Amino acid sequence: MNIHEYQAKALLKGFGAPVAEGVAIFSADEAEAAAKSLPGPLYVVKSQIHAGGRGKGKFKELGPDAKGGVRLAFSIDEAKAHAAEMLGNTLVTKQTGEAGKQVNRLYIEDGADIERELYLSILVDRTVGQVAFVVSTEGGMDIEAVAEETPEKIITVAIDPEAGVTAADLAKLNGALELTGEAAADGEKLFPILYKAFVEKDMALLEVNPLIVMKDGRLRVLDAKVSFDNNALFRHDDIVALRDLTEEDAKEIEASKYDLAYVALDGNIGCMVNGAGLAMATMDIIKLYGQEPANFLDVGGGATKEKVTAAFKIITADPAVKGILVNIFGGIMKCDVIAEGVVAAVKEVGLKVPLVVRLEGTNVALGKKIINESGLDVIAADDLDDAAQKIVNAVKGS
What we know:
The chain has helices at about 5-15, 30-35, 75-85, 145-150, 165-175, 180-200, 235-240, 250-255, 275-290, 305-315, 335-350, 365-370, 385-395; strands at about 20-25, 45, 60, 70-75, 90, 100, 105-110, 115-125, 130-135, 155-160, 205-215, 220, 225-230, 260-265, 270-275, 295-300, 325-330, 355-360, 380.
């Protein structure tokens, strides 16, 4: 689960991290009071959407010369003007795709005198099985570009979960970020704070880009991106309360109600698979034969007929879907349960696009019998390669 920048900063501030004063607003009428409550005279007006690259983004409704989704204001009147222009319009960034995201809330923040911009993130480094800091002196840039062009400038420091952030870790981080004096002292306080927040709140990612050294030599968290492990949300009601459903795909919201692992994609072949690895392989082989998957959907190993029915209905609700591939390898999941769910869903919502079903594993004979006797216009497949070719050909033929 993702949250907005202003929510992430409030969370980190609660742990003791240094952040600027700021106010979230939801209408242009609130901009004046928000700006007046800040020290000024420089204000930063930031679009709050779940996507990066806001500063370089463009608003669909405004001309090509209009400013992006993060703007400086040198007066209260200018902050008000920015707010009026940004709210309600659609911001397109590298991460939103061409559709963009509507800006429904802004964050007006006190400005900062920046000396240097740094990069810092915390994530789970699966190569060592530990939480790790990833830092670079090249802050304010896309970390992907830094990794490609100057990978030697990215330093990873893994943290021993039993020891926590040690003095040796702090020395490595300060050295990697070239921090000295007051900035180094601030770093020695900040890094353990961020690690504690990451662990206690079950974060999946904590990214500060940029972490700045101000002209007075102090550190400040200038931007913050935080996402959480969905599997741990049951113990964080305060985090769940921050969820902004307007930033999520409606199909993904519906899928979450049934505990389905669903991610909407841009293709035209809907996929229903059990197991994340098999789902990825299914998506790959669809691409191999020249089409694009419309979604990632893992119904899991313990799915019920009702859960499968819900999954099928979510797929068919996507107008971009021109064909559906059901690919089940039954281990814990039983093929007859999948078959019953597919039949129930088709009878309820109808079938307007080609459907290919490949079943193998537990109760496969019963599953195939249910499909064959259902009267549905289903294309049977013997294996994954056969299934992929058949659904791709069916979509091309339609």
